[in-house]
Amino acid sequence: MQTSKQKIMPEYVKYLCRRCKYRFRIKQGTKMALRCPNCGGNDIGKDEFDINKVINESENPMYDF
Ligand SMILES: [Zn+2]
């Protein structure tokens, strides 16, 4: 039996640091205090940004939306 494309992938939520404007993603469901990996600040907002432009921190470049 072969499962080719239908992999279960964790969903990422995009965030934006309001302090340094750094964009990053965190796995959905992560029960962590939000912190900017760049400046360490905690003024984090959700990022309503086009996914295509967020290729900054791509630990998983295989998007399948
Ligand atoms: Zn920051």
Task: Characterize the structure shown.
- With about 60 residues, this protein is an all-beta fold.
- The chain has a domain at about 10-55: Rubrerythrin, domain 2 (Single Sheet), CATH 2.20.28.
- About 0% of the residues lie in helices and about 20% in strands.
- It is built from no helices and three strands.
- It has a three-stranded antiparallel beta sheet with strand order 2-1-3, with no helix packed on it.
- Strand 1 (about 10-15) and strand 2 form a beta hairpin.
- It is elongated and about 50 Å long.
- It starts with 11 loop residues before the first strand and ends in a 19-residue tail after the last strand.
- The model has no long low-confidence stretch (mean pLDDT about 80).
- The chain binds zinc ion.
Pick out its properties:
mainly beta; 3-stranded antiparallel sheet; Rubrerythrin, domain 2; binds zinc ion; 3 strands; 0% helix; elongated; single chain; 65 residues
Note the topology:
Elements: E1 12-17, E2 23-27, E3 44-46
Antiparallel strand pairs: 1-2, 1-3
The structure holds zinc ion.
Zinc ion is lined by residues 17, 19-20, 22, 36, 38-39, 41.
